[in-house]
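Example 3.2
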Amino acid sequence: MHKKLIILFFAFSLLVGACQATAEPPAPAPQGLTVIVHDSFSASEGVITAFETANNAKLTFIQAGDTGSALNRLILTSVGSQEPEADVFYGLDNTFLSRGLEQDLFEPYQPAALAAVPDKFKLDPTFKVIPVDYGDVCINYDKAWFAEKQLRLPASLQDLTKPEYQGLLVVQNPATSSPGLSFMLATIAEFGENAWLEWWQAMKSNQVTIVSDWETAYYSNFSGSSGQGPQPMVVSYASSPAAELIYAETELEESPTASLVAPGMCWRQVEFAGILKNTPNRALAKKFFDFLLSEEFQEDMPLQMFVFPVLPEAMLPEGFLRASQIPETVASLDPDLIAARRDGWVNDWTNLMLD
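Structure, written as tokens:
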């Protein structure tokens, strides 16, 4: 009897040992990647999950305010640091590009898909940042308000200084808002360095409203979004009318808002992403950059952030195309001039408009 028990025990031990020898090892824990973004960043949950699953990764997004605020935070926490707060920054735009580059925050990387991106978006020849999306900052208007008042639309920036448009426009502070800065640069491009402040003085006399950020301007002041705001015109994006159409509570035939896209009235904003220096997760950050220029992510952006993808083959949703307006010409300034004069221009604007 004892011999049988011993034999059974020995056989059981061999079986357990064999099972243990063939059992799969536990899966490694996901590698973390932290991305600092502006408050308008959004991506579909399924798209983010697909990247995480394919790369055994866990993405963490830190929303850090408007582009200017996010960049300021990055400079304070990452310049000269061996342990940056994040691995990647998404949302640096061409109005702040020179400032981001001169701080030496980023490491160069060129995803393979970058070769398909038009050269007009590749504003950093060192590729320390790569273009991901673009949009045009324009003035949006409330169609119903103008129709009811039987007021013709302004056909130029100069028209906005006329008495009939007194108090009808809300803009953002260029010191705290990326679209606000873009619009200020559009006025400099339109009127020149010697006359742009005269236009703003005329707008001040014509009771232009100034707020700190896009969210306040669009959702609190603009009548076209809430129906209750006091201003029927707002500095926003040429794609904002598409958002009004697609996300309307009831189905609409057309968007209740549209954009003023006459020459000189719009500024093209290109957004970039950069891998932060001294990131311990550089290999995964490179994969994330490949992902940013993938068709999957590029085709997700239009209905998430209402921006245009830089990848030409990315398909655009029908509703987005139907209600978005693309200006034939956009205002522009030499990037070196912006780098040299931006802070001075903002100070001049602040002293004039906020005294």
